[in-house]
Write a structure and sequence with these properties.
- The protein has 173 residues and is of the alpha+beta class.
- Helices cover 32% and strands 22% of the residues.
- The protein is built from 4 helices and 9 strands.
- Helix 2 (70-82) packs across helix 3 and helix 3 packs across helix 4 (120-142).
- The chain is globular.
Length: 173
Amino acid sequence: MPRAFDNRNRFFSLVKGVNVRRGDVPDELKQRYRVESNGGHSVHFYIDSQTNSPAVRDRGRDLIAPGVNPSAVRDMVAIAQHRAWPSIYTVGAMDFRREVFLTGQAQGLAVFGYPATERDLPEIERRRDEPTRRRLELDAQRVQAPPTGQRASNISPFTRLRVGGITSATICA
């Protein structure tokens, strides 16, 4: 017999009047999950067709997860951002609330309902830096230097590098 869905791990917007349309999620998530409507009360997101329990349940005004799955929490935060929720309140197991806090704060959401500790702040910064590091690694892979002793005519002697909101110029002679 399938276990009942655990409603304790969830979060919701603290702001009235924001988008709470069930199923309004980024297209990327619609492609990643098997999506089923539950008679109009909620939309369920399943990892694959073999899974009986949804990874995320969307009731419009709140998003629910049965456990503490960092991927599911990341996707729930993406849904909250897609709906332009500026702040969220989380309830449930402490591990779930911590994961929501870390992921939401790293993505710029104000998260309430979790008492942050000193060890959480460096983790938020690390998570904030991950996308910047990945973007720089990809940019470095795309840049190919011209053969030794040659210089492409369309390359300026000044190379601009933009990281975050800071632009720096380097002279390449």
